[in-house]
Specification:
The chain has 54 residues and is mainly alpha-helical. The protein has three helices and no strands. It has a domain at 8-39. The protein has helices at 8-13, 25-29, 33-39.
Length: 54
């Protein structure tokens, strides 16, 4: 497990509920409406435990 920087906002809500993305500057500076629309949606991430679905 990689140790990451701690943020007060993530600690308050539980750090397992947050995903941090790093988007390169050249992508962020462009007019990129499809990427913006995608990132504004709600996400549900699921990781199977053990051997997956039973």
């Amino acid at each position: 497990m990689e140790k990451r920087r701690s943020h007060r906002f993530a600690r308050f809500y539980g750090s397992r509920r947050f995903l941090q993305l790093r988007i390169p500057d050249e992508i962020r500076q462009k007019e990129n409406e499809p990427m913006r629309a995608f990132l504004l949606k709600k996400f549900i991430l699921w990781v199977p435990l053990g051997n997956g679905l039973r």
